[in-house]
Write a structure and sequence with these properties.
mainly alpha; Fumarase C, Chain A, domain 2; two-stranded antiparallel ribbon; 4 strands; Fumarate_lyase_fam
């Protein structure tokens, strides 16, 4: 998939694409049919491999017909029933509702996106930890409200990036492993499933079987409680926030008049051959600027959910979470490229520090208050800050959750 409106979109590949969503819906229908047969509810003759009946080119049909029914599931089920014979056609989708298929398929697609993010984050943590350690003693001017403030080190700056990333990344594994199945039938009471299974216990067991088959967490119906989606949205935005902070520092620090940071492979200009633009940082900032409103849409949809199937709020989620997830995956790739190739100009950092106005006024005041001579350095616990970030990175590598 490519998108001229969103440079880098190809880096997300098939994740959260139309094809991925179609395959995920098929996987849900397959797991459900298998569970009905394995549970002795549907006859053994109903078993068939549904995924072989629909290919990627078939996605156009449910996409177009979704305009009539409001979602793509009805058309997909009709297509599957057309292409199967009795008794399979009679048992496909029985007991399910469209929201079961859409919500569970979304969980499958998002799981794949979270897996990709976890891989990228691990690489970023390694790169940032190495950079913080290498420059833990490299002098650098710290600035507040854009102006010179106090002496610091490059290591402290990088440690802040690393800590921000770890704060955002820590929930990834736990959330990935807790993505829930959604199988509640028409109104979330499992009524049809209980009827098919013969008991409440049998219905719950059937749902749990499907969850295990799909690699999702067993769960009772959550279709009117949208926390599973808003939690994912918040996680994705948190990652974009962390990368946006890093990218803003790099973009600012790479200005020619500052020159403390240089992207490993900057971008060019269509008209100015001398340019070395911080393109990765620019694209990361773009994502950070646009991510939060997408998550806000998910929260608005959650708040406006009504009855046992929302009239528009549910429908607003699909493209929103797809866009947010794809853009976050793209941002992850850009962030990895940025931090693994980032270069520090230690000489420029030292020169900027030396050129700043007197930075020791605060130090002199503090020393007088306690009646001591000022220390030769005014770095405080800078090294401790870096060491703490490195220790946390080490623990994250051992247990990302």
């Amino acid at each position: 998939m490519t998108d001229l409106f969103w440079p880098g979109d190809h880096l997300a590949g098939e994740l959260m694409s139309d094809r991925a969503f179609l395959r995920a819906m098929l996987a849900v229908e397959q797991a459900w049919l298998d569970a009905l047969v394995d549970g002795g509810i549907a006859p053994a003759a109903a078993r068939v491999t549904l995924t072989g009946l629909v290919d990627d080119d078939d996605g156009e049909t449910p996409a177009r017909q979704a305009d009539s029914d409001g979602n793509p599931v009805s058309a997909l089920v009709a297509l599957l029933r057309e292409r199967t014979a009795e008794p399979t056609s009679r048992w496909i989708h029985r007991g399910l509702t469209s929201q079961d298929v859409v919500d569970t398929a979304l969980m499958l697609c998002l799981r794949d996106a979270l897996d990709r993010l976890a891989e990228q984050i691990a690489e970023q943590v390694d790169a940032l930890a190495a950079l913080a350690d290498a420059h833990r003693g490299t002098p650098m001017l710290a600035r507040t409200l854009t102006q010179p403030a106090l002496p610091s080190t490059v290591g402290v700056r990088v440690a802040a990036w690393l800590t921000g990333l770890l704060d955002a990344a820590t929930p990834v594994v736990g959330l990935r492993d807790s993505l829930p199945v959604q199988l509640g039938g028409a109104v979330g009471t499992l009524a049809a499933i209980v009827e098919l299974a013969g008991s409440v216990e049998g219905a719950v067991a059937l749902s749990d079987t499907v969850a295990v088959a799909l690699g999702l967490a067993p769960a009772l119906p959550w279709h009117t409680t949208r926390a599973p989606l808003t939690r994912i949205g918040d996680l994705l935005v948190g990652l974009c926030d962390a990368w946006g902070h890093l990218a803003t520092d790099v973009a600012t620090g790479s200005r020619s008049e500052i020159g403390e940071f240089v992207e490993g492979t900057g971008g060019g200009s269509s008209t100015m051959p001398h340019k070395h633009n911080p393109v990765a940082a620019v694209l990361l900032r773009r994502t950070a600027l646009t991510a939060a409103p997408l998550a806000a849409t998910l929260h608005t949809a959650a708040a406006l959910t009504v009855d046992e199937r929302a009239d528009g709020a549910w429908h607003a989620e699909w493209a929103t979470v797809r866009t947010l997830a794809r853009r976050t995956v793209v941002a992850a790739a850009h962030a990895t490229a940025l931090v693994t190739g980032l270069r520090v100009d230690a000489d420029r950092a030292a020169a900027n520090l030396a050129a700043a106005a007197d930075l020791r006024a605060e130090q002199s005041t503090m020393a007088k208050l306690v009646g001591r001579e000022p220390e030769s350095s005014y770095l405080g616990a800078a090294d401790l800050v870096v060491a703490a970030a490195l220790d946390r990175a080490s623990r994250y590598r051992k247990d990302p959750s």
